[in-house]
């Protein structure tokens, strides 16, 4: 993970908000793959994460969630998007774009 941060810093001079978000997504993908190594039902997990992000946005508007809560849920949703795109879900015929 440190290597990815070094690469982003080298490319852009210093990590910007986009870089930091993408690094957070990569960390979450790594964590999620360890916690849930199976790629079965990834699409369902993606929708769950998107729903949690939406709920955090609604909760924030009524004082029940912080901006950090929203960010965390959006990172998790983005991580699941990456897993669906790269790891693919064996329930569906899509197998990614190749190398």
In words, what does this structure look like?
The protein has helices spanning 2-12, 17-35, 42-61, 67-86. The chain has one domain (2-86). Helix content is 71%, strand content 0%. Helix 2 packs across helix 4 (67-86) and helix 3 packs antiparallel against helix 4. It is built from four helices and no strands. It has 99 residues and is an all-alpha fold.
**β content, as a range?**
under 5%
Mean pLDDT: 91
Relative helix content? over 70%
| Domain unit count | 1
Rg for CA atoms = 15 Å
Derived structural class: mainly alpha
Number of separate strands: 0
Largest sheet: none
Tag the structure with descriptive keywords.
99 residues, mainly alpha, 71% helix, flat
Structure, briefly:
The protein is an all-alpha fold. The chain is built from four helices and no strands.
Give me the secondary-structure topology.
Blueprint: H1 2-12, H2 17-35, H3 42-61, H4 67-86
Helix pairs in contact: 2-4, 3-4
């Amino acid at each position: 993970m440190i290597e990815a941060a070094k690469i982003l810093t080298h490319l852009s001079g210093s990590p910007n908000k986009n870089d930091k978000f993408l690094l957070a997504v990569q960390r979450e993908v790594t964590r999620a793959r360890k916690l849930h190594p199976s790629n079965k039902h990834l699409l369902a997990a993606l929708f769950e994460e998107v729903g949690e992000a939406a709920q955090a946005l609604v909760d924030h508007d009524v004082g029940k969630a912080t901006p950090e809560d929203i960010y965390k849920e959006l990172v998790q949703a983005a991580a699941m998007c990456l897993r669906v795109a790269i790891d693919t879900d064996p329930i569906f015929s899509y197998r990614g774009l190749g190398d």
